[in-house]
Write a structure and sequence with these properties.
Elements lengths: L1 H22 L13 E5 L4 H4 L1 H38 L5 H55 L1 E6 H7 L12 H11 L4 H5 L1
Parallel strand pairs: 1-2
Length: 195
């Protein structure tokens, strides 16, 4: 997800800046380093707790539901035919067994293609729905940080996942406050939240 990538980039930049500061010549150390706070945010919580993300997810699900049902129906047909072949193999004629096996293979190939198309379309729909929200969250993070004197905002989720972050003091985690402030600044209409 884009938010996680942003967090990973921010973490890499912060680690690189720390190494660069440690390795620079003495005259470069006289540069003004901003004083401020370091905070962490867990972007993994965004999809469940940011109202715009929840609405976008619900919208993508509603849009993709007919195709998902079609795939489920086809999967059930394949399972039923597979079960019939398995349980009645001994009593079916060789011709009928060959016909049913060919039908099963054809349905399975068709299902595989449709499932791949579904996944590709689902990813495109999610990207189209999530990218604008991720951009807004990125801009909001800059404003949120500036107002609170935060000079480094690290994504806790990607840091832990990548192994780059070993430990953190829970008091620097601003996820709940960030999400509450974001939702307050970017309200989703009540009708949309109930759908």
């Amino acid at each position: 997800m884009r938010i996680i990538r942003i967090g990973a980039i921010a973490l890499a930049i912060s680690l690189g800046a720390t190494v660069a500061l440690a390795q620079t010549a003495p005259e470069a150390k006289t540069a003004s380093v901003p004083k401020g706070k370091i905070a962490m945010i867990n972007s993994v919580a965004f999809q469940e707790q940011v109202d715009e993300f929840r609405e976008a997810i619900a919208g993508v699900r509603r849009k993709m539901e007919p195709r998902a049902k079609e795939l489920q129906s086809q999967a059930e047909k394949i399972d039923a035919l597979n079960n019939t072949l398995r349980t009645q193999r001994q009593i079916l004629s060789a011709t009928r067994l060959a016909e049913m096996t060919e039908t099963l293979n054809q349905l399975s190939r068709e299902y595989q293609r449709k499932a791949e198309d579904f996944q590709r379309t689902m990813q495109q729909e999610q990207n189209a729905a999530f990218d604008p929200i991720a951009s807004k969250i990125g801009r909001f993070a800059a404003e949120y940080s500036a107002k609170r004197g935060i000079v480094l905002l690290v994504d806790l989720g990607s840091g832990l996942q990548s192994g780059a972050l070993i430990w953190h003091d829970p008091r620097v985690d601003v996820t709940r406050d960030f999400i509450a402030e974001y939702n307050k600044a970017n309200p989703v209409p009540p009708a949309a939240q109930k759908q």
